[in-house]
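Incident review: delayed structure delivery

Summary: a single-chain prediction request sat in the queue longer than the usual turnaround. Root cause was a stuck worker, restarted by the on-call engineer. No data loss occurred. The affected request and its eventual output are reproduced below so the record is complete for anyone auditing the incident later.

Affected input:
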Amino acid sequence: MVWIASSFIGPFQGFLITLGVPIAAWCGVFLADLLLRKRDYAEGDLYNPAGRYGSINWVAVGTTVVATFLGWGLVTNTFAAWLSWQGYLLDPLGLGAERQRPVDIRQPGRAGGAVVGFLASSLRALQGRAQESTPA
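Output delivered after worker restart:
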């Protein structure tokens, strides 16, 4: 790809920004779950779909999706034309001037996704407490 593409680094940087938002959202969800637990995970139940954690935590998945949606709306990505859809929340929030910069530390997208994921997962701390109180 490096040898045949006319410009590799720009689209690649755009791809990394696009991928960074859902990873940051997932990290926020995971860190909230990890920090709010009083006891360690029951390792056997992590591998058992019928265990106390279940097979899929739909609240965590939904939180990650919502935080990713908000994060992509708050980040600009002008490295490739196919990524121009990002930043769709900047104009409605009065941050439209941020669109002019391809990368800026003040872009709230990646950090915003992580913070939203963390805060939303913190609200479901009761679910973690219920899982901890279930006998092994």
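Verification: The chain has a mean pLDDT of 77.
Action items: add queue-age alerting; document worker restart procedure.
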